[in-house]
Design goal:
Elements (H helix, E strand, L loop, with lengths): L2 E5 L3 H13 L3 E5 L2 H11 L3 E5 L7 H10 L8 E5 L4 H9 L4 E4 L4 H12 L1
Parallel strand pairs: 1-2, 1-3, 3-4, 4-5
Helix pairs in contact: 2-3
């Protein structure tokens, strides 16, 4: 079973993603901030990290840089997801090392398709 780490500060979105991905057959680990995401990634070694951009402690771009700088974690795909879906936001995500960037306003099917592209 493939494992997704969902880093999302909103408990609403965390629960939505958790339920949706479990229903789709994934194991899910959650983190509520950037520090927890880095720690959980080191501990759990997920197949993919779904990373919010706006976080209360370390922003998602910094978290992505930390993950991609770690030789043991750099191969784990990072999909950044944010309510901010502008071109500048996506560019910053890709510059941070994200493997993909999607707005939260996109469809769940698009998100699932992108995840499968990255890990299956």
């Amino acid at each position: 079973m493939k494992k997704i780490l969902v880093c999302e500060d909103s408990s609403f979105f965390r629960n939505v993603f958790d339920s949706y991905f479990q229903k789709e057959g994934f194991a899910v680990v959650t983190a509520k901030d950037g520090q927890e995401a880095v720690a959980q990634t080191r501990l759990e070694r997920p197949d993919l990290v779904l990373l919010d951009v706006i976080l209360p402690d370390i922003d998602g771009c910094r978290v992505c840089r930390l993950l991609k700088a770690d030789p043991e974690l750099k191969r784990i795909p990072v999909l950044m997801c944010s309510v901010r879906g502008g071109d500048d936001d996506a560019r910053r995500g890709y510059e941070a090392g994200a493997d993909a960037y999607l707005p939260k306003s996109g469809s769940p099917e698009l998100l699932l398709r992108k995840i499968k592209e990255l890990i299956l």
